[in-house]
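Worked example (supplementary).
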Amino acid sequence: MAKINMVQAINLALSQEMEKDDRVILLGEDIGVDGGVFRVTDGLYAKFGPERVLDTPLSESAIAGMSIGMAIYGLRPVCEMQFSGFSYFAFHQMEAHAARMRGRSQGRFSVPMVLRAPYGGGVRALEHHSESREIYWAHTPGLKMVIPSGPRNARALLVSAIRDPDPVIFYEPKAVYRAFREEVPDEEETLPIGKSRIARPGDDVTLISYGASLRPAMEAAEGLKEKDGIECEVIDLLSISPLDDTLLTESVRKTGRAVVVHEAHRSFGAGAEVAARIASKAFLYLEAPIRRVTGFDVVIPNYQREQAYLPDAFRVEQAVRETLEF
Amino acid sequence: MPKREIDLPYRIEYLSILDENGQVDIDLDPNLPEDLLLKLYRAMVLARRFDERMLILQRQGKIGTFAPIKGQEAQIGAVATLTPEDWIVPSFREAPAELWRGKTMEDILLLYGGYNEGGKTPEGVNNLPVSIPVGSQMLHAVGMAYGMKYRGRNTVAMTFFGDGATSQGDFHEAMNYASVYQVPVIFVCQNNHWAISLPRAKQTHSKTIAQKVLAYDMPGIQVDGNDVLAIYRAALEAVDRARKGGGPTFIEMVTYRLSLHTTADDPKKYRSENEVREWEKRDPITRFETYMKGKDILDDGKIGSVAEEVQASIKVAEQRAAEFSARGADPLDMFAYAYAEPTPDLVEQREELRRELEARQGTRKREPEARN
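After joint prediction of all chains, the assembly is encoded as:
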């Protein structure tokens, strides 16, 4: 057991799956010799060679389309979009084909592939490098949409995604990539896709979050306890689709109060879906309106204003207090 | 430094073996065995008759929208060079090629009759399903071919698309990737001159579509797309090259869409009847018949018996499709192939629909006379 960051944890998952299964092939821009712009695939080209770690020409649509063909043929491609902001070139391939092939062929063909992409703000990047548009994928039937929040669950979820019989979109919170380390066992570990977890138990209010936003949610929970003795229960969704609403519903039945936290835009975001689930499954338990602490409905600003856009602990704490005072 | 020229190959061959009068170029005739010639002839006739029948069924409201293939039957020459272990990645105007490879007419009728079940390919038949977003499927052939190369298989992937598709980015990306990775893909462009209402000349400014291979350093050829022998010969060369590790090839079949884009289209609005008449003279089946008669493989008696046999097999397919239709489409089956395992939400939604269907049936049972 070693303490590693998320970049190393994802690398570990890729490396171990590639060792175990020669169907696993990586493809993407600058992922080979260069090890990826975030160094997630560092060392894998040297270890597995150019046939299994493909430095592709610059074309997101082709990376996805080629992966689809590989997956239909029986390989297990894991492709990388350099930034999720460029993955929309690949959206058509994923929506029109990856997501539909099983249904179109009535089960004859399937597309067991993973599309990895770093997402989210907080790294002082250029335009198109900081967004959080997971909901595009989550709204597409036939795809699965997974977002880990820390090194250990990132490793375990990626292994599950690679072994999943259906296409999985795997968003990596780049603000978390090197933010902290966790003990990650060397031995194989998986997490089921479509299951949320309780990141912190509590009785007063339920915070629901995922990915990079889990950190401000947890920070707020600690702050509220220290300052006011308020106990937040924090649910980490891990999968946006399929969405597991069991833990969060149970939690809201206990606390009567819910605050959803994500950096994606508010309107039609994952928070809206979570709120609808709570409203339909825990309506009579609610003591206050469901709050959403999210990115605003504007393009995420360049980094001089980025911090004002991104939900932080202050904003979450404020929402929790207002929810409790309602 | 003075300007200097970079020497690049810029020559595109055009291959035609059987002219529109059925006259064969003896030097180029691939001299296919008699049974293969007969099989090709039958398949082309079947494709034509089936297409005509589908149009009637569509006009009668028995099936929905589909894309007729009339005039493009010689495409079978390309797939005739493949083995069952090879793969095809079609667009939506390749019913003749799909049928040759083992797709059933019954399934085609079901697909265009609105049944998802028609989208399946029989086990062991290496055809991907039709791909409707124009120009997006060629990348899949490249990925599959990469798999073949990776696994050291001696197989190829052949992908089909139209002239319109060559304006899509994914087409160029597929050509580029195939060339970079030198994978065994055969790109077959059915240039039928019309992408719905846009003529070939307005689709691309280049003189030929085949010349686009220059950008990818890929072998390419233009062939008479109504000449099944030329297509066979060009495809065979491409397939042989791919099997030997020679990488991808591009084939432009110059053909013509004699019928509609789809059954929702009226070509009179954008093209002249004279143009259609001119192309009818170059019919791929008529000239092949003349060639086969000249070789004493075909006579009027044989033509008649093929016609009868083909009509009978279409009738059988129609009967099977009708029997399937009679059983109805269970709405609950829409959930069947969303994922390998249904998600909890889908289990719930399926149950929701099941209950609703039951309730609707109850309503119908209660008030049958109310509507009359």
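Two points are worth noting when inspecting this output. Chain B touches chain A at residues 87, 89, 116-117, 119-121, 123, 128-129, 131, 133, 136-148, 150, 157, 169-170, 173-174, 176-177, 180-181, 336-341, 343-345 (CB under 8 Å). DSSP finds twelve helices and eight strands in chain B.
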